[in-house]
Amino acid sequence: MECRLCEGNNLKLHYTQGNNDEYKFYLCADCGLVNYDLSGGLNQEKYAEVYNDPFDIESKINKAQKISFDYFSKYARNSGSFLEIGCGNGYLLSLAQNSGHDVQGLELSGFLAKSVKETLGINVKVDNFLSDNDLFDKKFDFVILRHVLEHLPDSVFALNKINNLLMPGGIALLEFPNINAFKFKTQRLKQKIGLSKKKYKKNFVPGHCNEFSRKSFKYLIEKTGFEILNRQSYSYKPVNNLIYSIFPLGNKTRVVIRKPLY
Length: 262
Ligand SMILES: [Zn+2]
What we know:
By secondary structure, this protein is an alpha/beta fold. The protein has a single domain (11-258), classed as Vaccinia Virus protein VP39 (Rossmann fold), CATH 3.40.50. 28% of the residues lie in helices and 25% in strands. The chain contains 7 helices and 11 strands. The strands form 2 sheets. It has a 7-stranded mixed beta sheet with strand order 6-5-4-7-8-11-10, with helices on both faces. It has a 4-stranded antiparallel beta sheet with strand order 1-2-3-9, with no helix packed on it. α1 runs parallel beside α2 (91-98). It starts with 10 loop residues before the first strand and ends with a strand. The mean pLDDT is 93. It binds zinc ion. The site of zinc ion (ZN) has 8 residues, from loops.
């Protein structure tokens, strides 16, 4: 097997999942990417269409979207054209619209796209952002991709697509899990020394293709010609978030990147 990020052959088994250790994850010693061996199968249907009311601001999903927007808005101060890939119920787009951005959504789900149009009046195109077609006849100042990157086998292709959607100087927010989070490191250590064995559901199949660390994400960003403006691990719990913004040990990472002007 070859590393899906740097194409190197320096892969070592890092950890397994499944009750019989049948799902294998390999760490690339060169770029740091954790590559799931896709021959084990992939289940991404568990993330499919779930409707959440965009007006219920107390719901977990909407609170998470507000946290993402508040963080990103420090980098998206001037209003501009704003695209969210995988916009779900559209709540984040409605926040962006309220602060003056000209917003557009992109969704795999026709059902969700229609609901955003009906409830919020926001346009959502139904398509896969990885499709070969040019999706829009314009470029965007801002692009958001939350918790999608880890599900895509070819992250270089995905970042090149984002590059193509952005204007020169355009800014994107990416959110994804932190494979070096304190929680995941501890779990792997416990598993390694036989202290604990996680029980998986009978029909469990992994949904993540690639897991990123600071090192592998930096490699991806440099390979695709972006620059990093800010990067931090984060939590939805305020106290944890304060700690994780200083020490990169949180379960989730968020990164603001910029496409160069020239
Ligand atoms: Zn690699």
